[in-house]
Amino acid sequence: MKHRALLLAGPFVIVAFLAFASAVGLAAASGARTMSLKSALTARQEVPPQTFKVIRASGAFSATLVKITKGYRLYWKLTFKRLSGKAMSGYIHKGRPGRHGPAFFHLCSPCMSGAHGRAYVAPAEMRLLKDGLMYVNVRTARNPAGEIRGQIRAAAG
Q1: DSSP assignment of 38-99, as one string?
Q2: Is the pLDDT of residue 114 over 60?
């Protein structure tokens, strides 16, 4: 019985593999590029400083930036733990380390750890991401300006 299921599934696996290989081949032929991004979010990086101190709050942001026809597609994931309460919202902001900056992209609200999604990024914003001039900020009711923050950096490799 198990062997019959494997024989029936075989053609589907082959078709799925060929579709994946074709997509990868088309991406390579079209000059598609990707970049991995990451950020470690901590309370110490928050600007302005937390109103309600929660030093152990932390999080992580990871993303892949994929070149598309006109700009880039950002596929992202946000996780966090030990916040003072529910995460009310998460944003990507433009800004240098240690400086508050304007919101660029809304990630989620309310946020659950493990939130993920995608966004369009113009070439000018891609350069800011690549140069470490954007950060992720997670807000809570006790820290409405932000509870944890982390600069976005290009991941090694």
Answers
A1: EEEEESTT-SSPPSS--TT-EEEEEEEEEEETTEEEEEEEEEEES-SS-EEEEEEEE--TTS
A2: yes
